[in-house]
Design brief:
The structure is a single chain. By secondary structure, the chain is α+β, with helices and mostly antiparallel strands. The protein folds into 2 domains: 160 residues, Leucine-rich Repeat Variant; 100 residues, OB fold (Dihydrolipoamide Acetyltransferase, E2P). 42% of the residues lie in helices and 14% in strands. The chain has 14 helices and 6 strands. It has a 5-stranded mixed barrel. The longest helix has 15 residues. It starts with 7 loop residues before the first helix and ends in a 10-residue tail after the last helix. The N terminus is likely disordered.
Length: 360
């Protein structure tokens, strides 16, 4: 096993987490060794990376489902039913087409099996669809994230603008939807675009939305790279991170890469009871930011009761200090981790804590 930030050996010794994201992390190692081609893990639509999906798809449009027509005759519950959804298109974002689109899809008639065929189109539902043309018909680029529910509300068509800006404007319009479920979807889609220009709209929701909307808008703001919401995230995560959207907020902390966020991240680390939050903040500090100001905090978490957090602390100390005492050997194994933590703790007590780590 080479010297990488989070190799398989590190993942294998981690104990399971409770939320969906924790489950994904805990069983990832199992999938690395026992992958079966029909089985995959999927994050919920609330966490979909809308921008990445749209950039992958040659055809992106939104609209209302008019009809759903089964293609075959076998419609028994529990069977994989192939159907065609006729969609009244109210906006093309990428590609061009008519005001109606025929989209072929499959749904098992109950729940999605093994991470496939997740989407159940029904008449009058509103969706944004990420599609490709195959054999003369349209199909989603992914059978679980190739379409996402949206609000029916639209922004006016923008002149001389790109599709990403138009999509953002449409999602912002959905924030005023009278239906709470549609507003929540609009918040999540806006976060999934990961655009800095969405921050003002998300901040309005943080301040004036209901509890669920405010939390999801906070997650969305973090996805745009907005570190001004970190103090609010600290207050929220001080209660715990066992459920969505708190666990999503905790996961988003891993991607913070603004050096000005270091004091806030350290404050979150000190107050967070959740293992997921601590491990993600430690990764941000020690892998993404590599900021010397974080060294004392990383050292403190060498003894973290969560094995993923303590490994992240060790790895971060290696990245920042380059001390041999905190560096696993090139071909390390799982059983090497705990002794290396002990050597790193000894270095910290004897040498490291007497140095000045106050400046970046």
């Amino acid at each position: 096993m080479g010297r990488v930030s989070r190799p398989v050996g590190a993942i294998l010794h981690l104990k399971p987490h409770r939320s969906l994201q924790r489950i994904v992390l805990a069983i990832l190692a199992l999938f690395l060794f026992t992958v079966q081609p029909w089985c995959r893990l999927m994050l919920p639509p609330s966490l979909a990376d809308v921008r990445a999906l749209a950039e992958r798809a040659p055809l992106v449009f939104r609209g209302r489902v008019l009809t759903v027509t089964p293609i075959g005759t076998n419609t028994e519950p529990g069977t994989r039913i192939e159907s065609t959804a006729k969609i009244q298109v109210d906006r093309w974002y990428r590609g061009n087409g008519s005001t109606e689109a025929l989209l072929r899809f499959a749904y098992p008639g109950g729940f999605a099996a093994n991470g496939h065929d997740c989407i159940d189109f029904r008449p009058d539902g509103y969706w944004v669809v990420f599609a490709v043309e195959k054999d003369g018909h349209l199909e989603m680029i992914d059978d679980c994230q190739g379409a996402l529910t949206i609000s029916p509300l639209l922004s006016p068509a923008l002149e001389s603008t790109d599709w990403l800006t138009q999509m953002e404007a449409d999602f912002v319009a959905g924030l005023d939807d009278p239906a709470s479920e549609a507003r929540l979807a609009s918040i999540q889609r806006l976060g999934g675009l990961r655009l800095a220009s969405s921050r003002d709209a998300l901040h309005r929701v943080i301040e004036h939305g209901d509890a669920a909307e405010s939390k999801w808008a906070l997650y969305g703001a973090l996805c745009t790279g907005d570190v001004t919401v970190l103090p609010r995230a600290q207050r929220l995560l001080a209660i715990g991170d066992g459920e969505l959207p708190e666990s999503a907020i905790a996961m988003a902390l891993q991607n913070v890469n603004d050096p000005s966020a270091v004091p806030d991240l350290i404050a979150i680390l000190k107050s967070a009871p959740g293992e997921l939050t601590r491990s993600r903040v430690l990764i941000a500090l020690g892998e993404k930011l590599k900021d010397p100001r974080a060294v004392p905090s990383l050292a403190n978490h060498l003894s973290d009761p969560d094995s993923q957090a303590s490994y992240a602390a060790l790895d971060g100390l290696k990245n920042i200090t380059h001390e041999d005492a905190c560096t696993l050997p090139p071909e390390w194994k799982e059983q090497d981790v705990e002794p290396q933590k002990s050597r790193c703790k000894a270095w910290w007590e004897q040498v490291g804590k007497f140095r000045n780590w106050a400046h970046n």
